[in-house]
Design goal:
It contains 3 helices and 3 strands. With about 80 residues, it is of the alpha+beta class.
């Protein structure tokens, strides 16, 4: 399973979002720190879920990282998050 799919599946299971998009942006970082041949190093996530209502930006980011788990987060060089309720 791809890293992109792992991210998608874990966030879907944790938050049952109304909207979720996971984009592998690795190719646009070719030659930069953390880039790996084959990609799967730099991601952008847009997620909308009711569970984020009333949470601060930091709480939302922590919730996403917790849902992904330390092992998966360690395999990602960059994770850009757009989170809202």
């Amino acid at each position: 399973m791809s890293v992109r799919q792992e991210i998608h599946d874990k966030l879907e299971a944790a938050f049952a979002p109304a909207a979720l998009e996971v984009i592998d942006e690795s190719e646009s970082h070719r030659g930069h720190a953390g880039y790996r041949d084959g990609g799967e190093s730099h991601f952008a996530v847009m997620i909308r879920a009711a569970g984020f209502a009333g949470q601060s930006r930091i709480q939302r980011h922590r919730a996403v990282h917790a849902a992904l788990g330390g092992d998966l987060v360690a395999r990602i060089h960059a994770l850009r998050l757009d989170i809202d309720a």
